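ok so i was messing around last nite and threw this chain in just to see what happens. nothing serious, just curious
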Amino acid sequence: MKLSDFDYELPPELIAQYPIQRRDQSRLILLHRRQKEVRETRFSNFVRYLYPGDLLLVNESKVIPARFFGSKSTKARIEILLVARVEPGKWRALCRPSRRVHPGNRIYIGEEREQVEVVEEMGGGEWLISLPPGMREEDFLLKYGQVPLPPYIRREAEKIDGERYQTVYAQREGSVAAPTAGLHFTAEMLRRIENKGCTVMPLTLHVGPGTFRPLEEEVVENNVLPSEFIMLKSDYWDAIREAKASGRRIIAVGTTTTRALEALALSRLEEHKIRRFEGEEYITGWTDLFIYPGFEFKIVDALVTNLHLPRSSLLTMVSAFAGREEILKTYQWAVARKFRFYSYGDVMFIK
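result:
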C-alpha cells in the first residue's frame, strides 16, 4: 500500500488558525458508510443522530503546557517540546534545532534563567532532559510552559488557546497535543446526550506529537508509530464489552479513543498492568497500534473525528474505518464547500 494513495490537495486558507466562537457551532459532516451518503449540518445537532443505549467513549487526557523557549550560554535559541515523562523531573523531549543540542548542555528558561539540562540523545530528534531540580515540576510547567499548538497553526499560543485547545472533560494531564474531536463538545451537550439515554464513558490516551506527523515511509506498512500511554478503569472495559455483545453502538470520540479501544481489544499493550489509582482498578499500558486499510475493527461502530492531514496515520485510520475512496471523495467535497480543516477545524460523524 502506497502512502501517496493517502494524499490530497488542501488550500492553505482552509487550515483553521483559531477556534470557532462556540464549540458546538462547528460544521458537521455526516458520512453513512453503508449507504455512502454525505450530508452537512451543525455539530449542535449531533445528539439527534444518537440512539438510546449508545455508549460514547471520550479521551479525558489533558494537554499540558509542554512547549518552552530558552537559550544556551552561547545565546543560541532552543525550543523544547516535552514528549513523555520518564520519571519525576525527567522527560523525553524534542529540542530544536537538534544540531545545536549536545549532552551536558544547559538551556536557560525565563528571566530567572532556570536551568534545563540535556542528559542524553535518544534518537529521532528526541533527548532526555532534566527539569530544574529546585522547582516543582508542576510549577515549572505552569510558569514557563506554553500551549503546544501544532505546527500548521502558524502563530504563537494566545490566551484563548489555554481554554479552547482543551476538551471540557479533560482530567488527566499528560498530552502534548489535544484529542481534537472532543473540542466540539460542551458541558450542556454532554447533559443532552445523557438525557437521551446514552452513556458517556472516559478513558485516557496521552497524545504524543507523533500522532499528527505525516508518515515517512512510502510503503504504508513499513511505518512505525511512537507508543502512547493508555489508562482505563477495569469496570469500564467490562461494561464496553458487555455493551458490544448486547448490540449497543460503541461510538469513539476521536482517533485516539479508537486507537485505545482497538489496542485493548487486541491486547496490544506494552507494560500491560492492572494498577490501583484513587481506590479503583485500572488497565494501563503503552500501545504503538497502527491502523490502516485492511484492519478489522473489533469495538468501534461509529466515529467522531476531525479532518486530518494528508499522508498521516490519522487519515489511514479513518480510511480503514470508512474506506479510502469514500474518505478522499468526502474530503474533496469538504474542500469544495470550504470546510475548516485540522485541529481547530470542523468535524465528521462516520456511522
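not much to say yet. The domain at 67-145 is CATH 2.40.10.240 (Thrombin, subunit H).
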